[in-house]
Description:
The chain is 27% helix and 11% strand. By secondary structure, it is an alpha/beta fold. Strands 1-2-3-6 form a 4-stranded parallel sheet, sandwiched between helices. The chain has a two-stranded antiparallel ribbon with strand order 4-5. α2 links the parallel β1 and β2 (68-74). One of its GO terms (molecular function) is lipase activity. InterPro entries: AB_hydrolase_fold, Lipase_EstA/Esterase_EstB.
Amino acid sequence: MNLNVAMSCAHVRHVRRFIELVLKYTEAKQINIIGYSMGSPIARKAILGGKCVDDASVELGPSLQSRVHTYISVAGANQGSYLCMLPFFDICNMNTGLSCNSKFLADINWFKNYESSYKSFNLASTADWVVGYMACGKKASEFPGGHEWKVDGMNHEQTEFDTAAIQLKMLRESYAGQSKSRPIAKTAQEKKKKEVRRSPEKPKKVQKRAPVPNKPAPKKDAPKKAAPSKKAAPKKAAPPKKAPAKKAAPAKRAAPKKNEKNNQKKSG
């Protein structure tokens, strides 16, 4: 075991470039990734993307979660190593080493469910004397969102090389289940913005208004019926004008006859 190696930006870029080349060469929409030992946290950072931990000027790129179907960690030092209880040697430094609270491990463990789009697994042994089963009060190989598969009696090398059947079973289980896609991981830059904790805002007091009495709904006016048009009364025919009656001329008296005159004289 090399004690003078760390999870540097150069190693992360190398693994990420390898993933991108496999995707390009195979023209596959998605691939499966298996990370062993220290290769597990390095591969997780390569998938996560964002800026390098030890060199903020290097941008790895966006998350590759959507291009990874299943991720498997085998004896991975995802929470640190049992041998790094003290920050000795490069492998245990507090920046890019396997110390429990190193800056690198804090970066990759900030989010969960970003390693794959379907399922992620964690294969660990209770007899692993390199990474250890427990480290800093945590399970050394666990990571947020990973489904644990525990084996007993296998040392570090046996856990890596003698569990091929278990690893194949994990892949088959992932493809058979086809669980729902996971949310796309956020970049490291977005994570850093959330590190600044803000005091929770006090809930605003909502002034309750006095209930307004229900007003009776205005009565709708009945539709007015059109008044029947009045028929003009038939005009009465004017009575015919009577011609003014002509006065009869007085009848002329007839002249007395001669015998009558003579009789009148005799009587006188």
